[in-house]
Amino acid sequence: TYELNEDEWHIIEEMCKILKILKDATLVFSCVVPNIANVIPVMDIINDKLTSIAIDHGVPALICTASGLAKKTLNRYYSQTDESEAYRIAMSNHSICFSLLYSILTFIF
């Protein structure tokens, strides 16, 4: 049959949690003009959430793997910021705002 069993529903529910993290970030950036100083804190929050899902023994292995792959992709983009002069300038000029924004976004997500 084409009905989902309990395990498959559980996998879908867990995948929805990952997708919600990405949806929330998309909505945040849809409301404001993103710049490097406010993108990095959001990437940090997404990374933290994906890490916690990837190591959670209570979620199916498929979800842990998917979260780990999403984290790997995010880190590929994140590593590009380390080499960016614009990133270094923005972060040095916005270190106080960075801490405040990170606190606010952590509360939202």
Largest sheet: none
Order of helices and strands: HHHHH
DSSP helical segment count: 5
Q: Percent range for helical residues?
A: over 70%
Strand content: under 5%
Structural class: mainly alpha
Distance between the termini: 38 Å
Question: How does the overall form come out from the CA principal axes?
Answer: elongated
Q: Low-confidence segments, ≥5 residues, pLDDT <50?
A: none
Rounded Rg = 16 Å
Quote the average pLDDT.
Answer: 81
* Count of DSSP strands: 0
Please provide a written account of the structure.
This protein is an all-alpha fold and 109 residues long. It has five helices and no strands. The chain is elongated and about 55 Å long. The N and C termini lie far apart (38 Å). The mean pLDDT is 81.
In short:
The protein is an all-alpha fold and 109 residues long. Helices cover 83% and strands 0% of the residues.
Could you give the topology of this structure?
Blueprint: H1 6-31, H2 36-54, H3 61-82, H4 85-93, H5 95-108
Helix pairs in contact: 1-2, 1-3, 2-3, 2-5
List keywords for this structure.
109 residues, mainly alpha, 5 helices
